[in-house]
Amino acid sequence: MVLVKRIKPLPLGGILIPLLSIVIGILISTIILYVIVGASPIITLSCVVSSLISPEIVLTFLFLTILGVALLVAFSGSIWNIGAEGQLWLGTAAAAYVALFTTLPQAPIVAKIVMVLLAMVLGGAWAAVAGILRAYLNIDEVPVTLIMNYIAYYVINYLVRGPWLGKETWGYIRTDMIPDQVKFVLIPGSTTITYEVLILAVLTIALTYFMLKYTALGLRIRILGSNPDALKAAGVNVRALIITALAISGAIAGAMGAAQLAGYLHRISYPIESHTANYGYTAILVAWLSMLDIRAIPIAAYIVSALYQAGISMQIAGVSGASATYVFIGTVLLTFTVLRVFSEYTIKIVRR
Amino acid sequence: MTESKAYNSNFSLKINTPIVSVKNISKRFPGAVALDNVNFDILEGEVHALLGENGAGKSTLVKILYGIYSPDKGEIYVRGRRVRINSPKDAIKHGIVMVSQIPQIIDRLTVAENIILGLEKYGLTSRISEVRDFIKVKSKEVGIAVDPDIEVWKLSYTQKQLVEILRALLIGARILLLDEAITFLPLIEKRKFYKFIRNFVDEGGSVVLITHKIYEAMDIADRITVLRQGRVVGTVRRDEVSPDDVRKMMFAEKSAQITYERLPTSKPRDVVALEIRDLWVMGDYGVHAVKGVNLTVKAGEVVGIAGIAGNGQKELIQAVIGLRKVEKGNIMLYSEDVTNKGVAKIRVKGVGYIPDQPARFGVSLDNNIEENLAMLPAITRRIIKWGAVRELARKLINEFNILTPSSKAPVKLLSGGNIMKVLVSRELFVAKRLLVAYNPTRTLDEVTAIMVRKIIKEKAAKDGVGVLIASEDLDEIFQIADTIAVMNSGKIVGTFPGDKANRDEVERLMVM
Amino acid sequence: MRSIEVISYILTVAPAFMAYYLASLGQGFFEKSGVLNLAIDGVFVLGIAVGYAAGVYSGNPWVGLLAAMAAAVLFGMMLAYVTTKFPISHGAAGLSIMFLGYGLAGLIGVTARSTYNRLVASGIYPQYTLPTSPTARILMFVIPVLVGILFYLIETRTKLGAAIRAVGENPHAATALGVDVIKIRLIAALIGYSLIGAGSMGFLTWIATWSEGAGVNHGWIAYAISLAAGRHPILTIGTAGAFAALATYMFALQAAYNLSPEIAKMIPFIVAIGAMVAFMATPLRKKLAPPLSLGKRFFKEERTV
Ligand SMILES: Nc1ncnc2c1ncn2[C@@H]1O[C@H](COP(=O)(O)OP(=O)(O)OP(=O)(O)O)[C@@H](O)[C@H]1O
Ligand SMILES: [Mg+2]
Fold first, then answer.
1. Predicted ipTM?
2. Taking the model in full, what pTM does it have?
3. C-beta atoms surrounding A308 within 10 Å
C-alpha cells in the first residue's frame, strides 16, 4: 500500500471528510462506551444528536470560534501555538486586575475596553516569549507554549492565593467578584451570552479574515508556513514575522480571556487547573478541523462544542464522567486527522 | 564546453545485455504527466546519459528505479526478471543505487553510520564499530579517503558527494544512477569523477547519468536517451550523433536558440551602481570566506565573478544583498552606504536578487504567482492591491512566456524552468537599479539558461541596471559578462574586460 | 544514624524516580525518531488506569505492569504509524490520542475502582501496586539506571540507534540510504512506549491509589524532564532525579524554605525552558538539539528540490 498525490483534490472533500470523520468518530466512541462501561448506544447517540440542537452550546461555540481564529493565525504560518490556554488565562488575569484593583470601573465603558486591551497585550506578550525563543534561538514553539500554559496557571494561582485573595469568599480561595458595571451585558433571554462577546466574535473573524487576505502581513504569515527561506531572501524580516504571528494569536486568546471573566466567570477561583474549561486546548481541534480555512472555523467550533455538550449530557444521564467528552473528541479528531489526507492523496495498492 | 578528452571506452566490444529494463512506465503528478509510457534499457557496462529539458521527467524516472516514487503503471525488469521496487531498500537489493545533486546523507551522523544503514548484512543490533574497518579497507581500494568516524556536517560538498559514491560502492551498487550528481562539483573534481565512472563500468557496472551539459554527456556516455514531456524521443549511440543532433532531440525547433556566443557588450553609464570596498565576510565555519574584496559595478554593466565553488562567491553575494554580516569594509549602492543594512532595506532600494536553488530561496512553491509577487516588500508595503498584482502577474506571464494554467495556480505545479522564469521575471521587475545573481542558471536546461542570460543582459543594456553575477559556469560568465573578475580563496585575483579575456588565463587564476 | 536517615530519604524518592525516569527515557527515545510525541500525557494517564485495572482484576501487580506497557505501546505505535504512513500533523494526531487516553483512562479506572470496592467489601484486598520494600526501592533506582545506560549504548553504538537518529533527522534522506522509515519508527514506539507504560506503573506505585485524573500533567512533566536533558539518556538521570525529589518533597520544601507551592510547581517547567535555551544558545546545540525533522510531515514522494 502506498500513498500517492491525487491529480485533483477530492471533489467536495472539504465537506465530505469532516462529516464522515464525525460519523465514524462518534460510532467508534459509542462502541468504546458500550464495551467499557456498558453505556447503551441508544443513549449515547441520542445525547450526541440532542447536543447538536442544544441551546446550551452557544457560549462554548462563541468562545471556541474566537480561540479557533486565534490559533488559525499562528497555524497558518506553521507556528504550532499550543499555548492558547495560558494566553487566555493571562488575559483573564489582566482583565481581573483592571476590574478589581484600579479605579477604572467607575467609567464602565472605558474599563471594559481597557480590560480587553490589557488582556490582549498580556496574552500577546506571553505568546511573544515563545515567538522570540523560536525566532532567535530556533527553539521549538510547541513545548515552549505548552509549558508556558502551566507557568501561567501557577502564576495566577499564586496571585489568587496571595495578593488577589478576595475579602468575601466564604472560605473559598478566590478573588472578589468584579464590579457589576464592568460585567458584560446579557442578551435578553440568555443566561450566558453577552452582547460584548458577540461583538468580539464578529470583530475577530472579520479583522482576521481581512488581515490574512488583504495585508502583506497576512500573506507573509501564510508563506511562512511553506517557505521561510524565500521570505528571508525577499527582504522580509522573518524573525519579526514569527513573533508578530504568535503575538496576534496570543492577543486574540487574551481578549477571549477577558470575555470569559466579564462574561460569566466574574471572578477567578483557585486552582485554575480544576476550574478551567480547557478551551485553549479544545480550540486546537477547532483550528485543525477547519483545515485552516477561516470560513470553516465557526462550523468546526459548532461541531466541537456539540461534542463537549454531548459529554456533559451523558454525565447527567448518569452514564459516565467527563471521560465521554474526551473519548468523543479524541476519536473524531483522530479520524479526521487521518481522513483529511485523502482530500489530496489516495491510496494505491502495490504488490510486494 | 571545450572539454574534449573522450572518456568513452571501446564499448561496442562488450556483450550488451540489458541489466535493467523499464517497460511502459507512466507517472502523473498534479499538474504534470511526468512520464508517459516510457521504455528504457540499461545495458551492462555502459554509461547511459539521460537528457532532456527541465521537467522532461528524468528525475522521476530514476526515482522510480530507486523506489522513491511508485509508477502509476509499467514494469521494471532486472536481468530479465520482473521486479517490484517499492523502496530504496528494494532497489539496493538489486544493486541499484542513486546519487543526486543534493547529498542525501545525514549531517549529524558519522560516515560509518550513514553507510551501515544501507548494508543488509548488518542487522539492527550490529555495532557501528563492526563496519569501520570494512570502510577503511574499501575506501583505500577505491581511492576515496575518508575517516569513518567523522560527522558528515564537517565535510565539504565535494567530500559529501565522495561519501555518497563510496557508500554506493560499499553497498554493492551495480547500477549507479547519477541525477545531476556532478553538476555542482568543481571542474577538477569532475574530471576525477569521470575517470572513476569509467573504471566502474569497465568492471561491469552500469551508470545512468543525468546532466544538462551536453558536452559532459558526449564525453563520457556510451548511449544517450532523450526525454521530452515525459516521452522517450529516442535512444542513440554516442558515436552516431553530434551535440546538435542531441539538442534537436531535446528541444526540437527551440534548439536553434542555443548559442554560446558572447552577448553584445553593453555600454556602461557613468554612474557607479555598486561599489564594494575592502570587504571581509565570515563563512559558515568561522573563517573568513571573503578577504578584502574591492569591486565596482557601473550602471548598465554586467560584472561576472568567475571561480570554483567554495571560494567565497556565495558569501560575497549574500553580503551584498544583506543576507550575511559584513565584518569589515563597505558596500555602497549608488554612493549610499548600505553595509549591514539588512535585506529589507537594501531590496526596497531597487535591488533584485536571483539565488541558486530557486525553489528554496526564490519562491514559495505552495503559493501562486500572484502571491509570490505580492510577498515582496518592494511590491507590497501593507495592504495588498490584488487588482494591481494580478495585472502585473499577467504582464510577466505574457512577457516571459511562463507556462502556467493561470496566475492563481500554485507554483509547485510548474516545471523547474518555469519556476525559474517566475523568479527571474519578478526580480527583474524589482531590479530598478541593481541585480545580484548567484548561479542563476545552474539547474536550467540550455534553452532556458540562455534565455535567462539574454533577458538579464538586455535589462542591463536597455534599462541601465547594474548587474553582479557570480557563477561557477565559465560558459555563462564568458557569454554574459562585460567585465570578468576571477575570485580565488576569498580574493579577486584578476579582472578582465569580457571581450578580451583569455579563457586559459581565467582558468589558471581560478585553480591557482 | 544520620546516614540511615539520608538513605531513607533517598529511598522514598524511588517510585517517583522510576516513574519519571522511565517515562522520560521512553519519551526521548521515541522522539529521536522524529515523531513529535504530544500523546504522552494521555497515554501516561491511560497506562496508570490500565495498570490499576489489570492489577485489580488479576490481583497481581506484575500483570498490571505488563498491561500498562501493552496499552501504552498500542497507542504509541498507533501514533508512529499514522504520522509516518500519512503526511499528517504530528501535533493533531498526538493531541487526539492524548484526549482519547484521558477518556479511556477515566472509563477504565472508574469501572475498575468499583470492582475494587466490591472486592474489598467482600474481604479481598487485591494487590495492584509494585512492592515497595527497601530492597524493591533500591531496585527501582538500579534497574532504570541500567536500562538508561543500555539505551545510551543502543542509541550511540548500534545500527538501530543510527537508524532512529537518521529517520529523526531527515526521513527522506534516510529512505534513500536504505532505511525503512515506518519500521524504524514502529520499533522506536514499541521500545519507547513500553518504557512510558512502565513509568506509569511506577507512578501508580508512588501515588498508591487510583482516583479520577490520576497522573494528569505528570506525562507532561516527563516530557519536560526529557527536554531539559536534551533527550540524552544519561543526562536524563539527573533531571529525572531532581524532578522526582522535588515532587516527593514538595511539601517539605515549601515548609522548609517558605516557598509558595505555586512557585515550587513552576520550577520544573521553568528549568525545562531554561535548559532548551541553554542547549540552543550554546555549542551544546550540536549534541543536544532536537532531531531536525521532529514533528515534520513525511510524504515519501514529496518534491524535494
Ligand atoms: N514530487 C513531485 N510532486 C509533484 N510534481 C512533481 C514531483 N516531481 C516532479 N514533478 C513534476 O513532474 C514533471 C517532471 O519532473 P522531473 O523532476 O522528473 O523533471 P526533470 O527532467 O528531472 O527536470 P529538471 O531538469 O528540471 O530536474 C515536472 O513537471 C515536475 O513539476
Ligand atoms: Mg531533475
1. 0.89
2. 0.89
3. 24
